[in-house]
What we know:
Elements: H1 2-11, H2 18-28, H3 31-37, H4 42-57, E1 60-64, H5 72-75, E2 83-88, E3 97-101, H6 108-123, E4 127-130, H7 136-145, E5 154-157, H8 171-180, E6 182-185, H9 195-208, E7 211-214, H10 222-232, E8 236-239, H11 250-257, E9 262-263, H12 268-291, H13 293-296, H14 304-311, H15 315-327, E10 331-334, E11 337-340
Parallel strand pairs: 3-4, 3-7, 4-5, 5-6, 7-8, 8-9
Antiparallel strand pairs: 1-2, 2-6, 10-11
Helix pairs in contact: 1-3, 2-3, 6-7, 7-8, 9-10
Amino acid sequence: MADIFNKLLILRTPGIGPAKYNALVKRFGSVADAARSLNTDVALRDAVMREMENAQRQHVYYIDDSDERYPSTLKQVKNHSPVICVRGNLDVLQRDMVAIVGTRHATANGMQFVADIAHGLAQKNIAVVSGMAIGTDTAAHRGALRALGNNATTIAVLAGGVDYIWPLENESLYWEILERGAIVSEMPVGFVPVATNFVQRNRIVAGLGQRLILGEADMKSGSMTTARFAIDYGRDVWAIPSHPTDSRALGPNSLIRNGQARLCMGLEDFVEMDEKNSNQKKIEKKFDADFNLIDAIGTIPVSESVLTGVVKKSISEIKSELVVLELQGLVRKVDGGYVRN
Length: 341
């Protein structure tokens, strides 16, 4: 716990966020030395100790980025949170995750559409990540919680401490998520959020999700900020289109028009994509294990006659296998032979 204490001591020092934290640790060579360099007063040290004691009483876990339980997707983000607080089921953090966000003022149809997608994703053992705001976020969480058995889980990222329920309208949802999913925050336990903390929250939502789905959203909404974070992180982004005359359609429609998001028509978009990726992997595995033909083809053209000698197959067998690989888009024919796509 000494290492967590030192990390929190740095992060709870006013004016220090993930970027400055990383710079300090790099400069001094270790977390302990970086913490000592700050010469923090007794009041701050006592505050961190009280926070950790409060966390322990409420069964809140501190997960740092050296812990194998730290979400791998979030760890990929530059200047990610060095320590996150988690309350609930830690195992959920190891599942595949999809972030779903949108306006607080969503239409009934928009919320139902989002809830159905979230439910379908949860049925496939994918954890739905959102910010527990009213409207779209609530629909996403509740849709995921409708799934059967252990699949009924979701992750809420809060702008305040993991024990600070906001908005109050979602108190019952908070306890449902806590029972079957996880609550995540980078803020201190007991922290009451201010406006700027919601942007920080959005950064984590985008970072956790391997993909992001954007529902109804105004152009200047926090949901659009989350989508832009996801785009910056290199995540695949889908947007649910709406009627052009509705201001809540401006966000998703603009991303689709600009080519920054794919058009989301429903759960089948993700099912078809996953099946395609799965089939691709099966094909590659088949040829890799049985024929090693894929390994024999690279960026330099190689002829059929050369391939027969490498994989120890007849020319007719090579030709038929190459046809299959071409149809699957794994290789293509060029002058001098075949190259891998």
